[in-house]
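Re: weekly structure request thread

Next one in the queue (416 aa):
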Amino acid sequence: MNPIDPSLLRGLTRPRTRARLSAASRRDVLRLLGASGAGLAMAACGVEGQGGKEKVDRSDVRDYWAGKAGTGTLRWANWPGYIEDDRATLKAFQKDTGIAVTYQEVIQENAQWFGKIQAPLAAGQRIGFDLMVMTNGIQLEKCRRLGYLAPLDHSRLKTFAANAGPGFKNPTYDPGNAFTVPYVSGITGIAYNTRYVKEEITSIEQLFDARYKGRVGMMSDSQDLGCFGMFLLGVDPERSTPDDWRRAAAKLREQRDAGIVRKYYEQDYIDALGKGDVWLTMAWSGDVYSMAGPEVKFVVPKEGGALWTDNLCIPRTADNPVDALALMDWLYEPEHNAPLTEYINYITPVPGTRPIIEADARKAAGEDRADLERLSGSPLVFPSEADLARLRRYRRLTQSEEAEYQKLFETIPKGA
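Done, posted below.
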């Protein structure tokens, strides 16, 4: 695998001065496990759904959307910090379309959210929302496999078709965007504190270096942790096999048993890195972008990095799916997406926002101008197509594979 040029992905220093939520409340998104998360995920394995399909054909789309019309209302479930504090995007959408949006920040973690919506969706009942945001991974795959998601009518998603970046169409976790369109994406790589680490960090191997014993942070999330173990072995996680998982888990246990890992983190690695409790750690790109202090740098290691996506999707039992679809498409107009990108600071699926942000920078002054220039020039927000091609997504797991994968990787942070 060819690496992203590490020099492109360093030197991120200061967060925007506009109102921003700490990344801690936003990137809990990938914490799939933990005591409660693992229990909810495994408990759902045997639940029968409404009959999900591997492929969606025209008749599925036609049958679902037949007779459905807009109502002028929409209920949207999202994560904290994923829209402006003043809800400017929602106000603009209502002005343009007449659709009133009830917006609630009720999703704190994927497995927890799945545990809340699983029973009503399995029974064909409403969950109280018409649109929700879920990360590609175990829970989204369950929703797809169990038939909990509405098939998307792409004849009503022409703005998405026109403006979505090529790297955000036809993802491996949802072929043909049958059930989802991206909201934002991010990269799992390595962050390090140059106050303590005097060499250039370019490789996952450096997370295994005994010189950093007790000063390395690793993710507790099984998918991110497993991906890094596989990257170290030169394995593409998307094409990995159970034998690859076993070999990767063995390497990660060697790292743990040698005392190199200080802690397996969820989100709290941010504070640990800033304080110097850890010197180098697995990290999410947007977190590092948002950290103050030029001493913290981010790199996609030469072995590769993981690309994750938070996706817009419609519960099959939604009361207002036409209105939800309208918002999904509206967000792919660059002029509509740019304010979100300026606020969220993760990878936007709408590359056409870049010249708008550049224009905003030219109109601004002082720190605001510097912040917008930094944002528009950051490959962590606007990676090239070549960069995206070098990143890898999580492996789609079948129900039986999920049990084996989780058994291998979720036990590592627990010392088993």
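The first helix runs from residue 23 to 26. The longest strand covers residues 180-193.
Next request, please.
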